[in-house]
UniProtKB/TrEMBL annotation:
InterPro entries registered for this protein in UniProt: DNA-bd_HTH_TetR-type_CS (IPR023772), Homeodomain-like_sf (IPR009057), HTH-type_TetR-like_transc_reg (IPR050109), HTH_TetR (IPR001647), Tet_transcr_reg_TetR-rel_C_sf (IPR036271), TetR_SbtR-like_C (IPR049445)
UniProt protein name: TetR/AcrR family transcriptional regulator
Keywords per UniProt: DNA-binding, Transcription, Transcription regulation
Region (Disordered): 1-25
DNA-binding region, residue intervals: 50-69
A Pfam short name: TetR_C_43
PROSITE patterns xref list: HTH_TETR_1 (PS01081), HTH_TETR_2 (PS50977)
Segments forming domain HTH tetR-type: 28-87
Positions with biased composition (Basic and acidic residues): 1-10
Organism domain of life: Bacteria
Length: 207
């Protein structure tokens, strides 16, 4: 059974902990800078990077990091949710196009994102945190975009008729595992190749 995260990290409009007020613009910028720096350091140097070192690299004081993210687990979770929100923004942009192949572009980005953030996702799994439980609204919104783009692709005949959004999300999760098993997390070209092999299985069989 999944544990509850140490702190619920809001998906949108971050608020100061313990209040109903939205963060001031400068505090929000600092939080975003910390998230971006943490994501880059975790991907390059692993999860052993300290909160104080993340603060130094982000150009903020240690108190700023500890105030927003009192534990490493809270920061892992926030990084993962921030990445989901970026994917949702990409999905919204793709949805505004008429491209029936847009679902493949979104799924490719999801796989690349998962490969880049494999260490954070592994840490959350080890800590028994489930993003679908910790941030159900964000996870559901992304799945909804996948379903909408999949419907468009199905109508255009560029994906098979018998595939569901749930199955597609399972394939994306499987792609993360496949990329990790192949040791391709730090090799974008190889991880993209693995992802393409998986996505090709969504296309209608050749007649």
């Amino acid at each position: 059974m999944s544990r509850q995260p140490p702190e619920r990290i809001p998906a949108k409009s971050p608020k100061a902990r313990g209040t109903g007020r939205e963060l001031r613009a400068d505090a929000r910028r600092n939080r975003e800078r910390v998230l971006q720096t943490a994501q880059q350091l975790f991907a390059r140097e692993g999860l052993g990077v300290s909160l104080d070192e993340i603060a130094r690299r982000a150009g903020v004081g240690p108190g700023t990091v500890h105030r927003h993210f009192p534990t490493k687990e809270a920061l892992y979770l926030a990084v993962a949710i921030d990445q989901l929100e970026q994917l949702i923004a990409s999905a919204a942009t793709l949805a505004a196009t008429d491209d029936p192949e847009a679902v493949f572009a979104l799924l490719s980005r999801m796989m690349a994102n998962g490969a880049e953030n494999a260490t954070v996702k592994s840490a959350l799994t080890a800590a028994e945190f489930d993003l679908r439980t910790a941030a159900p609204g964000v996870a559901a919104e992304l799945t909804g975009h996948v379903a909408d783009l999949l419907d468009r692709a199905r109508t255009a005949g560029v994906v098979r008729d018998d595939v569901t959004a749930g199955e597609v999300m399972a394939l994306v999760a499987g792609a993360f595992a496949a990329i990790q098993h192949a040791g391709a997390q730090s090799n974008p070209t190889r991880s993209a190749h693995i992802g393409k092999i998986i996505l090709d299985g969504l296309r209608p069989p050749s007649r």
